[in-house]
């Protein structure tokens, strides 16, 4: 059976592209489905949920696109500065980070900002939500790595790092995470919150994606994509993906293999077939499309892949140790997003009269 999926890419040219992929033939084809020109500056971030695609831009707005109705769904205006990162958790919440140092939590039901957190003294450069939906990590230009309890909406703990990190990402099992500084990937363990290993890429890293809990795909300022084995802390495969630097990588699973998606400054989005086995072989090209734009970011919209969440009472942990214990019990369980909505924001506040916008 053919999978329903769409490739979404943002560009310097202010346009978001959507390509519907036909997967039922040997060579996959990507046909243009929509172009969304709602931004007035280059697009810096993109994310996809079961129903929506969101794009963030240097124009300080987050634009919404309804994938079911195929219509523009409006804009989110809260950040004062470029939008740097976007990530959905579950179908009901979106997190955004920006150059204003804010992390915002949005409800996707009414698209209202449930919580606005002064997260960093400087830009928020990256965020990642734990698979449980209870916890998020953020990094910023204040040389800190911050952990957020999404149940309370408060900071759980702060770790000072020596340099400005520009990427943070949880593993699929949620037992480890990676923090990227320039060309270096630092591997952290959840329980100890300390670095357990480091790998260095030949060039500055632009994007990373966990293909499973042990293999990390890394793209940087050259035309190669490299796979790192997190346990062995070494590169296990590399291949030339594009003619110029690779800006973004994403992936999704088919029945018996993984599909790695790459986007480049050369305008191409490419899909690669990769069997995740003991000895990694070079991926084979499944299909490609030339957008003719300078691509900046990438997401895969694959509604059939969104997992059903499991209801469970939300944890009341407050310290890092309690949070770790709580998560170690539940890290393989996806928590219903309604259960982790920020409790202190669940009742609507009365608006003050007057004063500003």
From TrEMBL:
<dbReference type="Pfam" id="PF00400">
    <property type="entry name" value="WD40"/>
</dbReference>
<keyword id="KW-0690">Ribosome biogenesis</keyword>
<feature type="repeat" description="WD">
    <location>
        <begin position="76"/>
        <end position="116"/>
    </location>
</feature>
<comment type="function">
    <text>Negatively regulates the PAK1 kinase. PAK1 is a member of the PAK kinase family, which has been shown to play a positive role in the regulation of signaling pathways involving MAPK8 and RELA. PAK1 exists as an inactive homodimer, which is activated by binding of small GTPases such as CDC42 to an N-terminal regulatory domain. PAK1IP1 also binds to the N-terminus of PAK1, and inhibits the specific activation of PAK1 by CDC42. May be involved in ribosomal large subunit assembly.</text>
</comment>
<dbReference type="GO" id="GO:0005730">
    <property type="term" value="C:nucleolus"/>
</dbReference>
<dbReference type="GO" id="GO:0042254">
    <property type="term" value="P:ribosome biogenesis"/>
</dbReference>
<feature type="repeat" description="WD">
    <location>
        <begin position="239"/>
        <end position="282"/>
    </location>
</feature>
<dbReference type="InterPro" id="IPR051959">
    <property type="entry name" value="PAK1-Kinase_Regulator"/>
</dbReference>
<dbReference type="InterPro" id="IPR019775">
    <property type="entry name" value="WD40_repeat_CS"/>
</dbReference>
<dbReference type="GO" id="GO:0009968">
    <property type="term" value="P:negative regulation of signal transduction"/>
</dbReference>
<keyword id="KW-0853">WD repeat</keyword>
<keyword id="KW-0734">Signal transduction inhibitor</keyword>
<dbReference type="InterPro" id="IPR036322">
    <property type="entry name" value="WD40_repeat_dom_sf"/>
</dbReference>
<dbReference type="InterPro" id="IPR015943">
    <property type="entry name" value="WD40/YVTN_repeat-like_dom_sf"/>
</dbReference>
<protein>
    <submittedName>
        <fullName>P21-activated protein kinase-interacting protein 1-like</fullName>
    </submittedName>
</protein>
<feature type="repeat" description="WD">
    <location>
        <begin position="117"/>
        <end position="158"/>
    </location>
</feature>
<feature type="repeat" description="WD">
    <location>
        <begin position="36"/>
        <end position="68"/>
    </location>
</feature>
<dbReference type="InterPro" id="IPR001680">
    <property type="entry name" value="WD40_rpt"/>
</dbReference>
<keyword id="KW-0677">Repeat</keyword>
<feature type="compositionally biased region" description="Polar residues">
    <location>
        <begin position="308"/>
        <end position="321"/>
    </location>
</feature>
<feature type="region of interest" description="Disordered">
    <location>
        <begin position="308"/>
        <end position="328"/>
    </location>
</feature>
<keyword id="KW-0539">Nucleus</keyword>
């Amino acid at each position: 059976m053919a999978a329903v999926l769409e490739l979404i890419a943002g560009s310097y040219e202010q346009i978001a592209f959507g390509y519907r992929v036909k997967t039922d033939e040997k060579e996959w084809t990507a046909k243009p489905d929509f172009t969304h020109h709602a931004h007035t500056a280059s697009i810096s971030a993109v994310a996809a949920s079961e129903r929506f695609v969101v794009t963030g831009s240097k124009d300080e707005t987050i634009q919404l696109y309804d994938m079911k109705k195929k219509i523009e769904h409006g804009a989110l205006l809260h950040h004062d500065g470029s939008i740097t990162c976007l990530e959905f958790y579950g179908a009901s919440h979106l997190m955004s980070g920006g150059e204003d140092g804010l992390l915002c939590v949005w409800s996707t039901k009414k698209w209202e900002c449930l919580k606005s957190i002064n997260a960093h003294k400087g830009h928020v450069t990256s965020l990642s939500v734990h698979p449980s939906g209870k916890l998020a990590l953020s990094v910023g230009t204040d040389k800190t790595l911050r952990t957020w309890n999404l149940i309370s909406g408060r900071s759980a703990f702060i770790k000072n790092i020596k340099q400005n990190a520009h990427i943070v990402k949880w593993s699929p099992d949620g037992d480890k995470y990676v923090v990227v500084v320039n060309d270096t990937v630092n591997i952290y363990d959840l329980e100890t919150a300390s670095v357990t290993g480091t790998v260095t890429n030949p060039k500055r890293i632009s994007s990373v994606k966990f293909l499973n809990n042990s293999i990390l795909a890394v793209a940087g300022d050259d035309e190669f994509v490299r796979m790192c084995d997190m346990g062995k802390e070494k590169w296990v495969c590399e291949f030339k993906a594009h003619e110029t630097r690779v800006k973004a990588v994403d992936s999704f699973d088919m029945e018996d293999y993984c599909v790695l998606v790459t986007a480049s400054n050369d305008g191409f989005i490419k899909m690669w077939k990769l069997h995740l086995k003991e000895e990694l072989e070079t991926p084979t090209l499944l299909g490609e499309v030339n957008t003719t734009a300078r691509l900046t970011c990438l997401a895969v919209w694959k509604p059939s892949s969104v997992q059903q969440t499991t209801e469970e009472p939300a944890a009341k942990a407050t310290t890092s140790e309690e949070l770790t214990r709580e998560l170690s019990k539940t890290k393989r369980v996806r928590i219903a997003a309604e259960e982790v909505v920020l409790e202190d924001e669940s009742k609507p506040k009365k608006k003050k009269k007057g004063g500003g916008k």
